[in-house]
Design goal:
Elements lengths: L5 H14 L5 H12 L4 H6 L7 H15 L4 H5 L1 E4 L2 E4 L12 H18 L2 E6 L5 H9 L3 E7 L2 H13 L6 E5 L10 E6 L6 H4 L4 H4 L15 H10 L3 E10 L5 H10 L2 E8 L5 E8 L4
Parallel strand pairs: 3-4, 3-6, 4-5, 6-7
Antiparallel strand pairs: 1-2, 7-9, 8-9
The protein binds S-adenosylmethionine.
The site of S-adenosylmethionine has 23 residues, from helix 7 and strand 4.
């Protein structure tokens, strides 16, 4: 006897997730099925009439159980798309967010310009996690090279694997470091999406974030700004002439992060909002040429 079709399994999955109070039940059901069955958006439609075998149905059921227990879709699949990359996730890495692509898109033209002017561009990504920001920039700007630094050895292992999978390993180095502590040399661009959640807020985040993203990737200290202070203090010593420092920030941190950077001699040259209209990325340059 034939099993249920993909369309039938999709409809049942959507109902199960909606019944369990999952907000985007339709989107999550679709993303899970596409990922589990390795289908593209097009083949998902053209194969909607095909039957799922028992092993496939068991895999779908297990994935739905995990989603209902509030595990995020891409953690269940173990990977997610970011910029033009396919990134593997691990328990030690933050799941990269689409908002972070804003920082990548803002920096790529600067990196290209530096490559055109000097023949190369050295990028340092502090708190690299999966390697998302650095690897996406290396992919977009073939003349660039990058260092991804992180305090988590497990995250760095994942970043190295992602560099391999995405064909940029020859231009990427992973360094275990407490911010700049083990970083050597000077860079054209220092970029970071550091932990920036106010410590007292971490416990109130959705289960999907609180229980599945590592605390090291979330907790920004008492006021959420510890990492920006540490990076601002060390950036000058690791920047080439006319080098840039760029951050992802929390929606309400623009003025405070700008003040922290100004105190260390940097001027803000860009402030970029996300699609929701919130401040999301800032770019700085040394106010006085070094
Ligand atoms: C918000 S996550 C960003 C991950 C990745 N860059 C991204 O955008 O998806 C912050 C990262 O900073 C790392 N981190 C936290 N404290 C650190 C420290 N003192 N030195 C270096 N990395 C640190 C965490 O392990 C985590 O990978």
């Amino acid at each position: 006897m034939n099993g249920p079709t993909l369309a039938e399994v999709l409809a049942a999955a959507r109902r199960r997730l909606a019944g369990a109070g999952i907000r985007d039940a339709a989107g999550d059901a679709r993303t899970l099925l596409m990922g589990l069955l390795d289908l593209t958006p097009t083949s998902f439609v053209t194969e909607s009439g095909r039957s799922l075998d028992e092993a496939e149905r068991r895999a779908v059921d297990a994935a739905l159980d995990r989603r209902i227990a509030r595990e995020p879709v891409h953690r269940i699949l173990g990977r997610r798309a970011f910029s033009r990359l396919d990134l593997v996730l691990s328990p030690e890495t933050l799941e990269p967010r689409p908002d972070t692509e804003i920082l990548v898109d803002a920096l790529a033209p600067y990196a290209e310009k530096i490559v055109r002017a000097t023949g190369g561009c050295r990028i340092l990504d502090l708190g690299t996690g999966t390697g998302a920001i650095c690897l996406a920039l290396l992919d977009l700007v073939p003349g660039a090279t990058g260092v991804g630094a992180d305090l988590s050895a497990g995250a760095l292992e994942t970043a190295r694997r992602n560099a391999d999978i995405n064909g940029v390993a020859d231009r990427f180095e992973a360094v275990e470091s407490d911010w700049f502590a083990a970083v050597t040399g000077a860079f054209d661009i220092i970029v970071s999406n550091p932990p920036y959640i106010v410590r007292s807020v971490v416990g109130t985040l959705d289960d999907e974030v609180r229980l599945h993203d590592p605390i090291l990737a979330l907790d920004g200290g008492e006021d959420g700004l510890d990492a920006y202070r540490a990076i601002a203090a060390g950036a000058g010593a690791h920047l080439r002439e006319n080098g840039l420092v760029a951050y992802e920030i929390g929606y309400d941190q623009k003025d405070e992060v700008t003040a922290i950077m100004r105190e260390k001699g940097f001027s803000r040259i860009e402030a970029i909002k996300d699609l929701g209209g919130n401040d999301r990325a800032l770019v700085f340059i040394a106010a006085v040429a070094r």
